[in-house]
From TrEMBL:
Stretches the record annotates as Disordered: 177-224
GO molecular function: mRNA binding
Organism the protein comes from: Triatoma dimidiata
Protein family: Belongs to the Luc7 family.
Listed name of the protein: Putative rna-binding protein luc7-like 1 isoform x1
One Gene Ontology biological process: mRNA splice site recognition
Length: 224
């Protein structure tokens, strides 16, 4: 679970309606603000992922390159099973039974391959070392995943709100990053145009104030 604290923004449907109405006549470039916010969020997640990886390197028993590669094969099969199982359950819940059953058939094949990979991995080390939980870090949400995690645990992870939420955020960030430089240039030009407009308005107010002052001065001289 991510501890993000309370959102500093105001979430109000009435304000949203006002914004949507105002956006029809002016571009507020909030997509750039959103992109920068998501960029910071994902950068923080990736930083935590690297810290977690480093912590595992320091605390877990180091494996040889050959054994580590065999462990990675098991991890990859396990992750694929977890992802497909979560998807199959979601399809079944939405009424797509045939599609769900087809995925379950694929999962059965993956389970066989995973069992074979586990046997190869088990035979590559002493039994005492094999029993130790070998962890890796999820590249999407920075959660820990274990090589001995069962399918249910992995499906809960890959189908969970946190993991799926990070997928949505990363996809949205990629979408917003497309053409962001052009949008930033547009925002800069828009800002310059508005600055010029404000300057012209200020100059016009100054001229009107000077004209009023001059008219009052002339009026006072005539009356005198």
């Amino acid at each position: 679970r991510m501890d993000l604290g309370e959102c500093p923004k105001i979430h109000d449907l009435a304000l949203r309606a006002d914004f949507e109405h105002a956006s029809k006549t002016r571009d507020y470039f909030y997509d750039i603000d959103a992109m920068e916010q998501l960029q910071t969020f994902i950068a923080d997640c990736d930083r935590r992922t690297e810290v977690a990886k480093q912590r595992l390197l320091e605390t877990q028993e180091e494996l040889s390159a050959e054994v580590a590669e065999k462990a990675n094969v098991v991890h990859e099969y396990a992750e694929e099973i977890g992802k497909k199982l979560a998807k199959a359950e979601a399809l079944g819940a939405d009424g797509f039974v045939d599609e769900s059953l087809k995925l379950m058939e694929e999962i059965d094949e993956l389970r066989k391959k995973k069992a074979e990979a586990e046997e190869v991995y088990r035979n590559s080390m002493p039994a005492s070392s094999y029993q130790q939980q070998k962890l890796r870090v999820c590249e999407v949400c920075s959660a820990y995943l274990g090589i001995h995690d069962n399918d249910r645990r992995l499906a809960d992870h890959f189908g969970g709100k946190l993991h799926l939420g990070f997928i949505t955020i990363r996809e949205k960030l990629q979408e917003l990053q497309k053409g962001v430089e052009e949008r930033r240039s547009q925002r800069k030009m828009d800002s310059r145009d508005r600055d010029r407009d404000r300057e012209r308005e200020r100059e016009e107010r100054d001229r009107m104030r000077d004209r009023d002052r001059y008219d009052r001065h002339r009026g006072s001289r005539r009356s005198g």
